[in-house]
Amino acid sequence: MDELWGGVPAFPQFRGLALEDKPLFHQVFAQFPPQISEFTFTNLFVWRDCYQIKISRFRNFLCLLSEKGESPFFFPPIGEGDVIECYQALLQYLRREAAAPTIARVPETGVDQIDWKASGMKAELDRSQCDYVYLAEDLIELKGRKYHRKRNHIKQFQEKYSHRYIPLTPEWVPQCLQLEADWCDLRHCEASPGLYNESVAIKEAFTHFEELEVKGGAILIDEKVEAFTLGEPLNPETVVIHIEKANPAYDGLYPAINQAFLEQEWSGYTYVNREQDLGEEGLRKAKESYFPHHMVNKHSVTFL
User: Fold this and answer.
1) What is the tens place of the pLDDT at every residue in 228-276?
2) d(CA 140, CA 136)
């Protein structure tokens, strides 16, 4: 690990996140298996420009700073040692730039270990950032009355359209990018910061598809990509689904790609993390409609 740490500046110095940091993050995440969906190298890398991510090392902690906009924040530090000392140092650093210094997306396990009052800090639940986690078996088999509508949607799609599922390989990337461009034209992504940033992240993921070693799947209709999805292991028990896009003209295509990707690529995993709803009502309803097994609660840590 020491040779990998060598390129990371000591706090309070920072540098940008780069593709060359992938081995470091893989080793850190192997040693400290993450629970939150943000913590894969792929996810951090493809969103690095949106969040203006910088990295630093505080003692034995890897620290990630987001310099996004007027509200910079830290992601939870990854490593071992005096967590309270690390949190206090990071929040103190942010006091120079942020009105409300914050360490965001801190999972429940990190919150439970600290005597917050004695530390001079507090942790508050951030519901919009909490991850939805499902049993992979539930989303593959869709058994029982609660999944009746999902099964019906998939059945109607399968009966109406001649299609096939394929694992994504580089030759299909241009068609995936075209589907994303068409989807964005339909949804006017340029007028929505959230959708625009997502589009940039998708392009980054496909531009570096082979280097990132992320796994993808697609559904072809008339040999044209009409849905695609990307995911990867989050920890030994959990796969995280980063991206899922489908042509809305085909009813039932979203549940079809969701089920097929898990069945074909991830049936060996117990859980599926489908990320957060960002406080968007429509997204929340869509994620709740799959009946999560549990949530990964995330908190924001600030000074008292």
Assistant:
1) 999 999 999 999 999 999 999 999 999 999 999 999 999 999 999 999 9
2) 6
Kindly tell me the sign of the dihedral angle through the C-alpha atoms of 199, 25, 167, 239: negative
Neighbour count for residue 166 (Cβ, 10 Å): 15
187 touches 139 (CB < 8 A): no
Q: Are 228 and 176 in contact (CB under 8 A)?
A: yes
pLDDT tens per residue across span 142-151? 999 999 999 9
Amino acid at 104: A
pLDDT tens figures, 159-213: 999 999 999 999 999 999 999 999 999 999 999 999 999 999 999 999 999 999 9
DSSP 282: H
**Helical packing angle, 173-187 and 193-207, nearest 10°:** 170
Judging by beta carbons within 10 Å of its beta carbon (0-12, 13-18, 19+), is residue 168 exposed, middle or buried? Answer: buried
Tell me how far apart the alpha carbons of residues 269 and 41 are, in angstroms, rounded to a whole number.
19
CA–CA separation, 8 vs 157, rounded Å? 49
- 3-class state of residue 82 by DSSP: coil
Domains of the chain (ranges plus CATH)? 2-130 (3.40.630.30), 132-275 (3.40.630.30)
- SS3 (DSSP) at 99: coil
Give the 3-state secondary structure of 172-225: HHHHHHHHHHHHHHHHCHHHCHHHHHHHHHHHHHHHCHHHHCCEEEEEEECCEE
Q: Which residues of 285-295 are buried (b: 16+ CB within 10 A; e: fewer)?
A: eebeebebbee
The answer to whether 166 touches 172, Cβ cutoff 8 Å, is yes
Beta carbons within 8 Å of 54's beta carbon, 6+ residues apart:
14, 15, 16, 17, 64, 65, 67
Q: What phi and psi, each to the nearest 5 degrees, are found at residue 289?
A: -70, -15
- Cβ atoms of 253 and 226 within 8 Å: the answer is yes
